[in-house]
Amino acid sequence: MIGIECATVLKVLTETAELRQSAKGVSWTSVTGVVGTGDDQQFVRMTLFAANAERLVPMLKRGSRLYVEGKVAINRYTPSGGGEERIGFAITAWRAELVGLIGKSRPRKAKSPAPNGQPVPDGAHDWQRPADGGDDAIPFGSVSV
C-alpha cells in the first residue's frame, strides 16, 4: 500500500453517509465518491473520523460535492465474486468540507441590527453603523470662520 497526501474534490458521492462507532468508541464514516470525468473517472473510498465525521454525516447525501484533504492509499484487491485483481483508491481525510460551505458559495452570516435598533444598510461595516442613540449632532463645538 502506497500513501500520498493530497487534496481533491469528490464530485459525486454515490451513497448516503452513516455514522458508525469503532470498538474504542471513535466515530467514523466511509463513503464512495467520484473524481475525474469521462474516461478519467475514478471511484475513491473516503473515510472521516471523530468530529469531522460527526459534523458532516448529517449533510453527506448522494449527489453532494465534497472538498477533501488527506492521505491517499492505493489498494490491490480481488472482487469477492472472483475475477482479475483490481486497484482501488482510498482517502483517509483529516479535513473535509461540503463544496457549498466554502469559498464564494458559502452561506452568508445574517447581519446583526445596529445598537440603536435601526436597520443596517447592505454593505455597511461595524464602524459605519449609527452611534447609540442615533444623535446626528456634530460631536465638537461650532467652528467660525
How is this fold's topology laid out?
Elements: E1 2-10, E2 12-13, E3 20-21, E4 27-35, E5 42-49, H1 50-56, E6 66-77, E7 86-98
Parallel strand pairs: 5-7
Antiparallel strand pairs: 1-6, 2-4, 3-4, 4-5, 6-7
What does this structure look like?
- The chain is mainly β and 145 residues long.
- It has a single domain, classed as Nucleic acid-binding proteins (OB fold (Dihydrolipoamide Acetyltransferase, E2P), Beta Barrel), CATH 2.40.50.
- It contains one helix and seven strands; from the N terminus they run E-E-E-E-E-H-E-E.
- Strands 1, 2, 3, 4, 5, 6 and 7 form a seven-stranded mixed β-sheet that branches.
- Strand 4 (27-35) and strand 5 form a beta hairpin.
- The radius of gyration is 25 Å and the shape is globular.
What do we call the CATH topology?
OB fold (Dihydrolipoamide Acetyltransferase, E2P)
CATH C-level class: Mainly Beta
Which superfamily, in CATH terms, is the homologous superfamily? Nucleic acid-binding proteins
Helix fraction by DSSP (H/I, runs of at least 4):
under 10%
Shape: globular
**Beta-strand residue percentage:** 35-45%
* N-to-C SSE string, H for helix and E for strand: EEEEEHEE
Secondary structure tally: strands: 7
